[in-house]
Design goal:
five-stranded mixed beta sheet; alpha/beta; seven-stranded parallel beta sheet; Rossmann fold; 2 domains; 37% helix; Dihydrodipicolinate Reductase, domain 2; 10 helices
Length: 267
């Protein structure tokens, strides 16, 4: 039985992960974690997330609960995620990270720490989105000339980073398939007299509105036709379910940095 610790347990994503753990086999909730000043600390996590009492109190200290688990599941903020990963690596535990918005320096530290333990790091844990990554890679390898690539992503008004980690991953996958450097060809929004679109640029556009869970559209626009690949998340359960699947998988792997493509056997 895999023993999971959920960080950000009182948040929207953490709550759905706990619900998905309840519905899954061969995994159990060992502990729940929140920021030390969160008002839910000390309460039964079942009552916090809308489940029956579980006898698991929300803790404000990872050091306090880390010995109880095999894997930490984290969808929070970059600073907290790295702080927790340092502790996880030192303890030899595993970690599943869905946090987005990490800076290049933070990503480098994450990669270094992953060499010491087992980490699944992915901007999107949805099975459907990870199939989308594979699909757009295959499409881009065929539509190498004469097609403009644009990515449009939409999320709820509370999302703090833009563009989404998923949109950036889509752009990276496509750029690599086309042999382009995203740092040179990525265009993040347009305004004013921008001039004619270059043939190599990859546009990445952001929408923030209401309670949109997550939508991503990749457009391959050619002359006389347009191919679109679209993923729409109706709720957070698909991300949470993927995170639980990753947690079940990572505990038996050797040390290293993995993503959902590894978890799903798509590589």
């Amino acid at each position: 039985m895999v023993r999971a610790i959920v960080s950000g347990a009182a948040g929207r994503m953490g709550g759905r992960i706990i619900h998905m753990i309840e519905a899954a086999e061969s995994i159990t909730l060992a502990a729940a974690l929140e920021q030390a000043d969160n008002p839910q600390v000390g309460k039964d996590v079942g009552e916090v997330v809308g489940l029956p009492r579980k006898g698991v109190l929300v803790s404000g200290s990872l050091a306090e609960v880390l010995p109880q688990g095999d894997v930490l599941i984290e969808f929070t903020h970059p600073e907290a995620t790295l702080e927790h990963l340092r502790e996880v690596a030192a303890a030899g535990k595993a970690m599943v990270i869905g946090t987005t918005g990490l800076s290049p320096q933070q990503l480098e530290e994450l990669k270094g720490l992953a060499r010491k333990t087992r980490v699944v790091f992915a901007p999107n844990m949805s099975v459907g989105v990870n199939l989308m990554f594979k699909a757009v890679e295959n499409i881009a390898q065929v539509l190498t000339e004469g097609y403009d690539v644009e990515i449009v992503e939409a999320h709820h008004r509370l999302k703090k980073d833009a563009p989404s980690g998923t949109a950036l991953k889509l752009a990276q996958v496509i750029a690599q398939a086309l042999g382009r450097d995203l740092e040179k060809v990525g265009v993040y929004g347009r305004h004013g007299i921008t001039g004619e679109r270059t043939k190599d640029e990859i546009g990445i556009m952001t929408v923030r509105a209401g309670d949109i869970v997550g939508e991503h559209t990749v457009i391959f626009g050619g002359t006389g036709e347009r191919l679109e690949v679209i993923h729409r998340a109706h709720n957070r359960d698909n991300f949470a379910r993927g995170a639980v699947r990753a947690a079940q998988w990572i505990v038996t792997q050797p040390p290293g940095l993995y993503d959902m493509q590894d978890v799903l056997g798509l590589k």
